[in-house]
Design a protein that fits this description.
Pfam families: Fic (PF02661). This protein is mainly α. The chain has three helices and two strands, in the order αββαα. Helix content is about 45%, strand content about 5%. The longest helix is centred in the middle third of the chain and has 16 residues, at about 50-65.
Length: about 100
């Protein structure tokens, strides 16, 4: 893994490949709906279309690398990045 530099989609894909032992990529296999454990009701359905997921991940990468946001509190920026990543849910087998 990289020891310095910005977090990119390539880095995210490499981390996923290392952790999960596959190179499935972003959204090539439909992900899991998030359900209420008590009722089974779907409470969130992440994007399922691979092109949409790639577009959203590209947008997230641009946000991460946007130097105009360097004045933002790093914890706020990290919280936004985490929320966006989890909302996109780009991997079918773990995020």
């Amino acid at each position: 893994m990289q020891t310095k530099g910005l977090l990119t989609n390539q880095t995210i894909l490499k981390i996923q490949e290392t952790l999960k032992g596959n190179n499935a990529g972003f959204g090539k296999i439909p992900g899991t709906a998030l359900k209420n454990a008590q009722t089974g009701e779907i409470v969130y359905l992440p994007p399922q279309d691979s092109e949409e997921i790639l577009n959203l991940m590209t947008n997230l990468e641009q946000f991460i690398q946007n130097t105009e946001l360097s004045d933002y509190d790093p914890l706020v920026k990290m919280a936004i990045m985490h929320f966006q990543f989890e909302s996109i849910h780009p991997f079918y087998d773990g995020n």
